[in-house]
Amino acid sequence: EQARLRQQVVEEDTEDWQTSPDFSGLERVGGVDLSFIKGDDVNACAQLVLYEDSQMVVFVDGNGLFHYREFGLACHLGVLSGLPCVGVAKNLLQVQGVYKSEEHQSQIAALKKGGDSFPLAAASGKVLGKALRSSDKSSKPVYVSVGHKISVDTAVRLTHSCCRYRVPEPIRQVRTHTHTGLNGYSIACPVKKQKI
Asked: Is the model's pTM score more than 0.85?
């Protein structure tokens, strides 16, 4: 199933707002989180907000193309929903020749300010995502990858624009609600228009 759906992933910008320096035209940014219940191997809680008839993008707490099969949760959600999606992971997935090596650690050390990034390239040379220092306050990067209908460079710019802290605000907010009792809250945050 993943291999079939992987063929439908669009790895480029498809929406007008994606080419605007301040994302003009983008009205909502949604967050999604999938939380597993400790000790329960069957059930999970997923949080997602979708607004009809508005330009939106969904941040997924997890990976997109930066995945074993180049088809993580952000790709799956994007292809099935038809929405632009961005995968943002807090931990490095060691996959396709990308490892937590000395070289990787030195690249992280070279990220001096919020917005600095470096590519995460597979052994084949294909860029699967980017490590991003999301804010000046955080020295640990997040790992940004294409989910669907967005380029990696736009995904990185958008992620940086939504970060007050290390994790983009839509993911940070939805995680707060899913991890506080798994009681069914969802959230979407309006995008602040700002030049990057």
From this structure: no
For 136-165, how does the pLDDT look when each residue is reduced to its tens digit (9 = 90+)?
999 999 999 999 999 999 999 999 999 999
Q: Note the maximum CA span of the chain.
A: 47
pLDDT average, residue stretch 46-71: 79
Strands 28-36 and 44-47: antiparallel
Q: How many helices (H) and strands (E) does the chain have?
A: 5, 8
Q: Are 78 and 141 in contact (CB under 8 A)?
A: no
Rounded CA gap, 9 and 63, in Å? 13
Quote the Cα angle for 167-173-178, to 5°.
Answer: 110
3-state class (DSSP) for residue 175: helix
DSSP 179-191: TTT------EEEP
Delineate the domains of the chain, giving CATH numbers in brackets.
2-14+25-190 (3.30.2170.10)
